[in-house]
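Handout, section B. The chain below has 360 residues.
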Amino acid sequence: MPRPDLYAEAQEYLLNLGDPDYFDTALPDVLRLLGHALPVFVEHATYPHTWVYGQLSATQVFTDATGAAQDVTLNDVLLSGTDQHSGHLIGAKGMFETVVYTMATAAGGTPAYQYFSWNGDLWEEIVPTSLPNFASTALQTLAFVAPLSWRRGIPPDVTFPDGFDADQYWLMVRALEPPVVTAPTASRLLVRLVSWPVSDDIQELVLALFYPRELHVEPVAAALDLYIPDWRIRTGGPTHLLRELSPLQMLRIYPIPDTLSTDTDPFFRWAADAAPGSNNLTVMYTSSLLEWRLPTWLEGLVVWRLAARDAMRQGERQDMPLAQALNTVADGAELILRNLWRDGLELQELGGQFDAAPLR
């Protein structure tokens, strides 16, 4: 139902004395609170655990070497040249805090490097908690705390190849004191992503899964019915992975898996948008009610809540008994709907929304 129609119905309860401007202000909050009161609107999203690598020249030209950085071929990843400000860039669709280098050729001399993250406007220097020694051939680890200012984007001062997906969270490693004669090389890198930005409509995480392998389309509800039979009445957090939603709407997984899983359980096939052959994080979450997807059977609840809010305000239409009555009716309707879902009634019988399967 379009907004004007929702507002027109609310006005009927208010004898046409309601304030449409107030309705516009109140509607998002009404939908948000209904999403909490009826936690049955389940969405899923997949966050790719993918990263890219490339050499960076002193003139800020990026040369893609992702394949070399991720394979096991020996001594094929150039980490910097022998000129100042050469180095490399690592980009990912999520934030990472650890990079492990399998060194092949040690840098000549005693080079020194700087480390920067892209904050959306400029390169911001970071102070690692563990520094790699590119003048050694042992395993070397770069570790740092992901800065709060880190943003995904395309740095305009870097020249990327045509067609390259440069919209990443970027880390720059740049030679301040360049190597002498011999440039450092590695055989491979390991980058572990830990955090992904999530959409504002996520209210509560239901299930978080970290897994690789090829994912295929499979109905979400059918998979859950098969592998987690009690999911429809389960409350609380996920059991597969510790997780948190930060105030910045950032999903972070911990502890970071030490190895890349190779599990091919069919349960992992219900997300169609994950990149095949790579590790991914898939989450199921309850979402705020989206105005454009508001089911017809919930429109009455929205109208009652809007009218009740307007009736509670000081002004021409203030009517506390009316507000109390409308809220009481809405509370009763919400309770009935929750009980129906708890008793196993399929949501599609109410609104035909198969994706919005009941949780409680």
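Note. The radius of gyration is 26 Å. Compare this with the example in section A.
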